[in-house]
Amino acid sequence: MASPAAILARGPWPAEAVDARWSDDPFEPPPEKDAAADAAIAALHERGSPSHDGVAARLAGYQERDGCLRLDLQPMRWALRLVADDASHSLAALCVTRRADGAWLAGRRAAWLSTWPGRWALGAGGAVDLGESPAHTLTRELEEEWALTPAYLTVEALIRLPHEMVMLVGQARLAEGAEDALAMDDEHDTFAWWPPDPADWPPEGDGPLLRMAALLTSTGGPSLRGPEGETRSPRNLQ
Fold first, then answer.
1. What CA–CA distance (Å, rounded) separates 65 from 105?
2. What number is the average pLDDT over the span 205-216?
3. In the CATH scheme, what is the code of domain 6-217?
4. How far, in Å, CA of 82 to CA of 37, rounded?
5. Alpha carbon distance 33, 165 (integer Å)
6. pLDDT, tens digit (0-9, with 9 covering 90-100), for 113-124
7. Three-class SS of residue 13?
8. Burial class (CB in 10 A: 0-12, 13-18, 19+), 9
9. What value does the mean pLDDT of the chain take?
């Protein structure tokens, strides 16, 4: 049974306060997970989507101390994130992006993509590359997908999703007029600026996107964190 989504750690932190430490030891999945990843890659190939594999990041642990967030990462097979019931704590970065007036950048993902094809999403996001700081992933994805550079960026939360993927969520703010430089990549087929108040969003701004907006506009909520300075695994929420 899938675990409910959970906030593992709640910022905001400045990007420079997020530290990534990479292990030299790659994650070794059980054979059945490797087989499920093989099947997911084969399914992408069958429907004509890009089906290359590679190496990405897995969250092995995390720690909050003195206003900083430390992420313990290890290399893992990229395709493990495609396993439907257990993504093995693969780490993704989501850079939610807002215009100077508070409007939210939303894009409809192209039909050929491996995840959320044809769905609307907020901002930019993707896998953390081998050796990369996830805080850098946020700005890299924004540049690659939309050709935008934020005026400032905060790292807002570390979230575990029900299928055991972990997401580092950042919020980028653009300078006045910076949206004029926007250039959409081929991972999207259209985009829009949604109103600052999510209550005014169009119907495609559905449940998951509204929950993300609520997280980013809240001042917090019930804490799911452990004691300050304790290193925790993504499953250790008690």
1. 32
2. 93
3. 3.90.79.10
4. 6
5. 14
6. 878 889 999 999
7. strand
8. buried
9. 89
Question: Does 63 score more than 80 pLDDT?
Answer: yes
Rounded to the nearest 5 degrees, what angle is found at the Cα of 112, between the Cα atoms of 153 and 38? 95
CA 120 centroid distance within chain: 15
d(CA 200, CA 219): 21
The mean pLDDT of 133-155, rounded to a whole number, is 97
Is residue 81 within 8 A of residue 87, CB to CB? The reply is yes
Alpha carbon 181 to its chain centroid, in Å, reads: 23
E strand residue ranges, the chain: 6-14, 18-22, 55-65, 68-77, 91-98, 104-109, 120-122, 124-127, 152-160, 166-173, 188-194
Cα 11 from Cα 158, distance rounded (Å): 8
Q: How many CB atoms lie within 10 A of CB 84?
A: 10
Q: CA 171, 174, 175 angle in degrees (round to 5)? A: 145
- Nearest-angstrom CA–CA distance, 221 and 35: 39
